[in-house]
Amino acid sequence: MKRYFSLTLITTAILAGCATTSITSDDVAKGYNSIQADEIAKHVKVLASDEFGGRAPSSEGEKLTLNYLTKEFTALGFEPGNGDSFFQEVPLVSLEADSDMVLNIGGKDYQYKKDMVMGSSRISAQEGIENSELVFVGYGVNAPEYNWNDYEGLDVKGKTVVMLVNDPGFATKDPNLFTGDAMTYYGRWTYKYEEASRQGAAGAIIIHETAPASYPWSVVENSWSGEQFGFVKDNNNMDRVAVEGWVTVDVAKELFTKAGLDFDTAKAEAAKGAYHVDMGDLAATVNVKNTIKKSVSYNFIATLPGGKTPDEHIIYSAHWDHLGTDKNRKGDQIYNGAHDNATGTAGMIEVAEAFTKLGKRPDRSMTFLAVTAEEQGLLGSKYYAANPVIPANKTVANINMDSLNLLGKVKDISVVGIGKSQMDEILATAAKEQGRTVSGDPKPSSGGYYRSDHFAFANMGVPAMYAGGGSEAFDEETANYRKRMSLVLRGCYHQPCDRYRDEWDLSGAVQDLQLFYKVGFDISQQTQWPTWNENSEFQRK
Fold first, then answer.
1. What domain range includes position 82?
2. What does 131-149 look like in DSSP terms, one character per residue?
3. Which end of the chain is less packed: N or C, by CB atoms within 10 Å?
4. Are residues 228 and 314 in the same domain?
5. How many Cα neighbours within 13 Å face the side chain of 63?
6. 368 and 423 within one domain
7. Where would I find the H helices in 446-527?
């Protein structure tokens, strides 16, 4: 049974500073109730089909995906969002490291995927390190605002730095250390390689541990092997370390023992304050042979122009890409990416359609941006932020959709990075009308706010919301279903088993998409733009 949304005063002020509109509560309810589980499923089945091959950037699957989005948004009456085009070119280069490599440390060879995954971001056919001294640099962080520098007084030129994943706050749970259990950008693997490069290191190795990384070793195996995409740069990324990669925690413990160190002791010391220590006489050698391909991928952008201020945009985002097909893999070779992120892409189509049911245009434009290469380090959204089709000073807010709720209806709504902007308040108002409460970030230690495409908008100064799902099941039957399905979803993250399943309960996804629609509509009618909270690290530039 469809739940009709209660909207009592749509024609008057929704929040302080709202403008009036001729769109009625019945109009808004038509859009709200047009979002249906069977429609979401229809889109996911297509996008996550074997025919689309896992939707890798610059693949046949990309062409099929872009054609599908073009067809759907054109049918809805949306206009091309980039001049007369639905597309924004994103120049990419793919580097695929030859799997026939070994990492030799202390006279022992460590095997690719089993013990380590190594690669190079340099656009070069061959890179490597030879007898490069190992230095443990704690968390590999240089953060002046936290009075923390693991590299202080250390010269790592020509050396290979070894570091922990996440940041010290996760290890200690001390709310006064960084941001406590909530990961900062300093805890992300992207930052650690960037900082090692700024410090002049030859190599950078992150020690994988499941809890602080928030994913198992199998994700490293699948996500950091095969084609790795990056941007085409004039310097061919020669300012990056020659080799960057991961080792398992078991390998790390063995290396620390060989160096006359205790891993657990060193890890504890690293969490107390800026820390580094030489790893004895240990040195690393590895040779990375790259197959290089330059290509162009595309962001997709479509707009429903606003009725009063069409130059001001609310942007909905989702990434259309996944990991593609691994022809070297035994068994199922296609990473269909049904949950991550065919669901978000399908949800974007559903929310877009909801706005066409209003009868009249919202005051501001509604723009839908499906980005490429999220799985490769948020490349599509990073490129958009550096080359925005819509200037930041005309972008009112961003609502991001990445891996929708497949666990059924809930009484709450989770907000990743809660407390950063007024978007939380607007969401809470809409959620209350749904009979739901805002429950906060479900796993702050994973640093989710820095791991999806809204992060690029936040860096532009645009208030960005990343929400969805919840923890309080609607009823006992849903609670039992959640226990079963959550194990399946967790085990299939970045695995070939992330496929569409008929047993998915999409009622929770419908709830969330209806909320996202309502939040976007409310923002479109307000005179005042949402702002960042004073304590946020992001502010309008």
1. 25-92+294-525
2. EEEEEE-TT--EEGGGTEE
3. N
4. no
5. 3
6. yes
7. 454-460, 476-491, 507-525
